[in-house]
Amino acid sequence: MHPMLRQAYETEMTAAVSQYDAGDFRLSFAHLERAHVLGQSFPIAHARTHWWMLKVGWRRRDVVEMIGQVFRIPGALLFSKIWVPVGNTGGAHVPPFKSMPIPEDLQRLLDKYGRGSGA
Question: Is-contact 69 50, C-beta < 8 A?
Fold first, then answer.
């Protein structure tokens, strides 16, 4: 992962963990979705994001989220380098193979520093 992309990913993950620790699981999950978009092409970052989504699902007692993340974690480790649905935010309430629009700020980072960007 390019250092600039790693920095943006880590910023989102740090914010997600901070909000998780503060008990704001909605905002934590929003940061995890952004981290997912940035890290989904990189197996460890991708799986780490899903692990935290599982944790948020557990704290929310969201059974759909928990079950979905249990399946997405190994998928992230196995398939991230092969293919990912561009822009997918990673939550279990979103189809796992659905591509989605990417927020403009994240798209700029991915264009410049994402896998295959030439950076």
Answer: yes
**What does the DSSP 8-state code read for residue 97?**
T
C-alpha separations of 39 from 58, 71, 89 in Å? 22, 18, 10
pLDDT of the residue at 116: 62
pTM above 0.90, yes or no: yes
Residue type, 36: H
Cβ atoms 96, 78 nearer than 8 A: no
The mean pLDDT of the chain is 94
pLDDT digits (tens, 9 = 90+) for 89-104: 999 999 989 999 999 9
> Which are the contacts of 41, defined by CB distance < 8 A and separation ≥ 6?
80, 81, 84, 114, 115
How many Å from the N-terminal Cα to the C-terminal Cα in the chain?
A: 10
> Amino acid letter at 18?
S
- Nearest Cα neighbor of 24 from 51, 49, 70, 59 is 59
